[in-house]
Amino acid sequence: MAEANLLATGRTRQGSLEPSSSFQGLILALQQYWASWGCVLLQPYDMEVGAGTFHPATTLRALGPKPWNAAYVQPSRRPKDGRYGENPNRLQHYYQFQVILKPSPPDIQDLYLNSLKAIGIDSKLHDIRFVEDDWESPTLGAWGLGWECWCDGMEVSQFTYFQQVAGLECAPVSGELTYGLERLAMYVQGVDNVYALNFNGGAGDKKVTYGDVFLQAEQEYSRHNFEFADTAMLFEQFKMAEAACQKYLADGWADGKKERHRMALPAYDQCIKASHVFNLLDARGVISVTERQSYILRVRDLAKACGAAWLKTEAGGA
Amino acid sequence: MPDLLLEFLSEEIPARMQARAADDLKKLVTERLVAAGLVYEGAKAFATPRRLALSVHGVLAHQPDLKEERKGPKVGAPEQAIAGFLRAAGLKSIDEAKVQPDKKGDFYVALIEKAGKPALDVITEMMPEIVRSFPWPKSMRWGSGKLTWVRPLHSIIATFGPETEEPDIVAFSVDGVTAGNETRGHRFMAPASFKVRRFADYVASLEKAKVMLDPARRADTIRADAKNLAFAQGFELVEDEGLLAEVAGLVEWPVTLMGSFDKAFLAIPGEVIRATIRTNQKCFVLRDPQTAKLVNKFILVANIEASDGGKAIVAGNERVIRARLSDAKFFYDTDLKTKLEGRLPKFDGIVFHEELGTQAERIARIVALAKELAPLVKADPKKAARAAQLCKTDLLTDVVGEFPELQGLMGKYYAEAQGEDEAVAHACEDHYKPKGPDDLVPGDPVSIAVALADKIDTLVGFWAIDERPTGSKDPYALRRAALGVIRIILDNTLRLSLESIIFKELGGREVHRAMPEENWPKGHEKLSVIEQGDQLRKIVTAELLDFLADRLKVQLREQGARHDLVDAVFALEGRDDLLLIVRRVEALGKFLDTDDGKNLLAGVKRASNILRIEEKKDGKSYASAPDAKKLTAPEEKALAAAIAAVKKEASAAIAKEDFAAAMSAMAKLRPFVDAFFEKVTVNVDDKALRENRLMLLNEIREATRAVADFSKIEG
Q1: Shortest CB distance from A109 goes to which of B11, B283, B319?
Q2: What does each C-alpha distance from B112 to B67, B98, B674 come to in angstroms?
Q3: Segments of chain B assigned to CATH 1.10.3210
Q4: Can you tell me the distance from the alpha carbon of A61 to that of A259, in angstroms, rounded to the nearest whole number?
C-alpha cells in the first residue's frame, strides 16, 4: 500500500494513528480538524511557557481588532507540578493543544463538540458537560468566563471567552479552547498511567510509550526544579529579563509621538522569560508568600506594557 | 386574558446562578408590568443549564387609560408662566384648562388624559432594557457584540396572547438577537429547533425534546432515582441538598446511574472519600444502613440517555473517581508519615496576619492561654497545652490542603493515629466549634480550654490592632468568634472573669490606638509610659467587653428575652461574667411576671421619676443616705427599716448568686413602698424634710439596683 493510502486509513507501517491508539495520532487528528476549519496551524513557541495561553499567538493576538484563528500544540512547563515521574497524573512538562478563534464564532460550542467527535468521543455515548470555570491569569493580567468541559466526569478541556488580556479589554472577544492532551489521550486510550500511553501507535516491540519518551526527563527536571536549579542565577535572570523587557519597550517606539511600536514581540519574549524564571524560583521554595505577590505584579506590569505596545503595531491594529 | 411566555436560550449558565436569575427575571418583568398598570394573575420562573424561562398568566390586554390633573400657575399669572404650563400640559389654549380655587386664590388645572396602550406594545418596549440590564453576578461579552449576558445568548422566545388564539410574537431585538417563537431541545438528544405557542405546549414540547424545565422536578427526580438505586442494592443515599441543587443545575435531563470503586479505598476516612467524590466529581456517596459506614458505591447524574444504557459513562466516571481516590489515599498515607508536631517548624514561615505575627507565634499564645484557662474550666493543663500545640497542624497536611472543609476533622484523625490522648484528639476538631449559630458547642474540658483560647486570642489580637468588624464587613469573622466565646461559656455554665483574662492577654501585646485626648482618664499625662500602656489596655479591654456584651444582647434577644430586661441588667457593673448576666435576666423576667414584681416595679419607677424631676429642678443629686432622725411619718420610718432589712437579705442572696432569693427579698419592699406613696407627701414645704424624703426615695432605687436598673424596664 502506498504511504498516502496508509495515512488515509489511519494506518502506518508501524501501527495505528487512530487517536484512540496513539498520542501522536490524537494530536494529528486535532490539527487536521482545526486546520480544515480554517485555523492557522502554528508550531509550538520556542520558549519555556507555563501554558499555551502565553504563546504570543494567543496573548498578543487576542488584543486589537483584527480577526485571528490559530491552533497549535504548546509544550507547557509547570516546575512545581513535577513528581519525579512517580505520580501517574502529574507532570512538570506536558502538552496543551490550543485553539484561539477571534472573534469567537456563534457556533464555537458545536465546533468544539465536533472536534471531540474527530478524536473518537461520541456525544451520544458519553456525558459531555460544560461546568462553570472562570479563568484568571494574575501574571498576564487576564481573565475570562467559560467552563471546564467534562467527559464522563473527567475534565478534558478548558473553554474561555477572553474578556481582558494584559489589563486591556478584548474587543472583539476571542474564544480559547485548551485541550490537556495527555489526559485526553489517557481517556481515549483507556490507560490510568500517563507513562503507559502509547505514543506512536506501534504494537509489540514497535510500541513507544510516553514513559519511553519522557520519564527520564520528568525525573531529571524534578530534581532540577526542586533541588538544584541555580537560584542565584535565576534571581539574576529575572532581573535581567525584566530590565530587558522594559528596555525593548522603551526603545521600540518609532518616534517621540509613541504612536508606533516596533519591538513588542521581542519585549514580550522577555516577559515570558521572567514568568518562567519566577515559576522556577517558586518551585525552589525561595520566594516567600509576601514576595510572591510582588513578583506576580512585576510580571503583570511587563505583560500590560507589552500588550499596550502590541496595540501600536501593525498586527495589533494600529 | 392573555399570557406572556419568555425564554432566553444561552450557553451553559453556572449552576449556582440559575435560581437567583429565575427570580430576578420574574421580578424585573412583573414589576414593570405592574408599574405600567398591567396587573396579572400569576407568574412562574424556571431555569435549566441553558435557559431562563418565565410565564406570566392573566395579564391585562390593554393598559387602563390614565387621567392626571396637573396644577398650573395662578389665574392672572405672567404670560410666560402660562405659556410654559400650556406646553408642559400639551394644551392649545388656556381655555382648555379648568380653574380651581385654592387657599391662595384661583389656579389653572389641566386635565391630561393618556389613552392606555395595548399590553403587547408596552411589553415590546420594556423588554430590551430588561435584557441589557439583567443583574447577572458576572456577565460577559462574546464575538464582536457589545451585549452582555452570563454566557453567549442564542435565542429568545417572547409570545403574548390569549389561550384561545395564536399568540403574537413580542417583536423586539437586542444586539442582533431577535425574539421569536422557536427554541431547541436537549443539546445532544434533541438539538432540532421547534415552534412554541404558550407555556403549556412549551413545557410539553420541551419534555418531548428531553428537557425538564422545572429545577424542583429535576431535583425530585434525581433524589427519588438515587434513593431507589441505592435501596435496590440494600444501601442508603447520603443525602446532600447542596449537591443536589447543584447537580440539578448541571443537567436538563437527569439520568441517575450507579458506579463503584475498589473496596480498598474504604480504608480512607469516610469524610475524605465523600469530599473527594462530592467536590471533584459532584457525585453522591452511599452507606450501609446497618453500620452507617460508606460503601464502595457512588451515584452519578448524567445529562443524557446514552445509546449503551450508560455503560461507557459509568466506566468513565469510575476511572476518574479511582484516580481521585488514589490521590486522596496518597495524600492521607503521606500525611500519616509525618507526626503532627513535626509540622510545627513550618509555622515559623507562615504569616497569620501582618500585624499579628506568624502562625507559630499565634500557636504559642494559644498554648499559653489554654494552659491558663484549663483550671478554670476543669481541664488538665498539660492536655490543654498539648491540644493547643497540635490543633492547627492539620492545616499543613495534604488532605486539608486539598479539602479545606476537612480542617479540624483530619487533625483529630491524625492525632488519634499517632496515639494522642482522646481528649487531645477531639480538641483538634472541636476547638473550631461552634462554627455557626447552629453548630454544636464543645463540651469536653480540654476542647473548651482550647476553643476559648483560640477565639479569645483572635479577638484580643484584632482589638489590639484596632481591626474591628464594621457594618457588614467582618473579614476575620470576629462576630462569630465572640458569639463562640459566649455560647461556650453559657452552654457549659462557666464562671469566668473575662475582664481579667482579656486584660492579661493584652499584656504581652503592643496596642495600637489613636486615642483622642478626651477619651483618656484625667491626669494620664502624669503617668509613666508603662502606666499609660496599662491605661490603654484597660480601655481596649472595656471596648472588647462592650463588644461581647453587645453580642450577648443580640443572642439573648434572639432567644426571646425582653430587650428592656437585658438593658436593665447590662446597666449594672460586672458585665464580664456572662453567666451571671444571663441568670439575672432570667430571674428578673420571672419576678416581673408576679404581682409583687409588677407593683414593686411601679413603685420604683415612681420613686425614680420623682427623683429625676426634683434632681433636675434643684440641680443637685440626692444620692446619699437619709438622716434617720429626720424620718417622721410612721410609713417612712417603716420603709427605711424595710429597705435596710431587704438590702441585707438581698445582698446576702446575691453573694450566693441566688437571684431568685434576691428578688423575693425585693418583693418584701412592695407594701412599704405602696404605703409610703399613699400616706407620705414628698414635696413638702419643710426643706430639710423634703430633702430627707428624696434621699429615702433614692434608697429605694439603690436597693433595687442590686439586681437590675429598674428605670430601664418598660411598663
Answers
A1: B11
A2: 6, 11, 69
A3: 341-560
A4: 19
Q: Which amino acid is at B700?
A: I
- Interchain contact A49–B (C-beta under 8 A): no
DSSP A59-111: HTTTSSS--EEEEEEEEEE-GGG--TT-SSS--SEEEEEEEEEESPPTTHHHH
Chain A residues in contact with B303 (beta carbon < 8 A): 127, 129
How far from each other are the two terminal CA atoms of chain B, in whole angstroms?
A: 55
Amino acid at B467: E
- Please tell me the distance in Å from B358's CA to the nearest CA on chain A: 12
Residue A270: CATH number of its domain: 1.20.58.180
Of B154, B313, B351, the CB nearest to A290: B351
**Whether the complex's predicted ipTM surpasses the cut of 0.90:** yes
- Contact state of A163 with B141 under an 8 Å Cβ cutoff: yes
Q: What is the pLDDT of residues B596-632, one digit of tens each?
A: 888 888 888 888 888 888 888 888 888 888 888 888 8
Nearest chain B residue to A143 by CA distance is B140
Chain B residues lying within 8 Å of A174, measured CB to CB: none
> How many CB pairs below 8 A link A and B?
103
Distance (Å, whole) CA B360 – CA B585: 41
Which residues share a beta bridge with A149? Answer: A130, A157
Peptide bond into A172 cis (omega under 30): yes
Among candidates A104, A152, A161 on the partner chain, residue whose Cβ is nearest the Cβ of B317: A152
Question: In the CATH hierarchy, which fold is given to the domain comprising B578-712?
Answer: Isoleucyl-tRNA Synthetase; Domain 1 (1.10.730)
Q: Distances from the Cα of B77 to the Cαs of A119, A292, B234, B649, B690, in angstroms? A: 85, 74, 91, 82, 69
Residues in A closer than 8 angstroms to B150, CB to CB, are 145
Q: How close is the nearest chain B Cα to the Cα of A5, in Å?
A: 32
Choose one of A159, A193, A224: the last residue of a domain. A224
Digit-by-digit pLDDT tens for chain A (318 residues) are: 444 554 555 555 556 899 999 999 999 999 999 999 999 999 999 999 999 999 999 999 999 999 999 999 999 999 999 989 988 888 999 999 999 999 999 999 999 999 999 999 999 999 999 999 989 999 999 999 999 999 999 999 999 999 999 999 999 999 999 999 999 999 999 898 999 999 999 999 999 999 999 999 999 999 999 999 999 999 999 999 999 999 999 999 999 999 999 999 999 999 999 999 999 998 888 887 668 888 999 999 999 999 999 999 999 998
CATH number, domain with residue A29: 3.30.930.10
Nearest beta carbon to residue B316 from set A87, A109, A154: A154
Q: Residue B377 and residue A101: Cα distance in Å, rounded?
A: 66
Domain count, chain A: 2
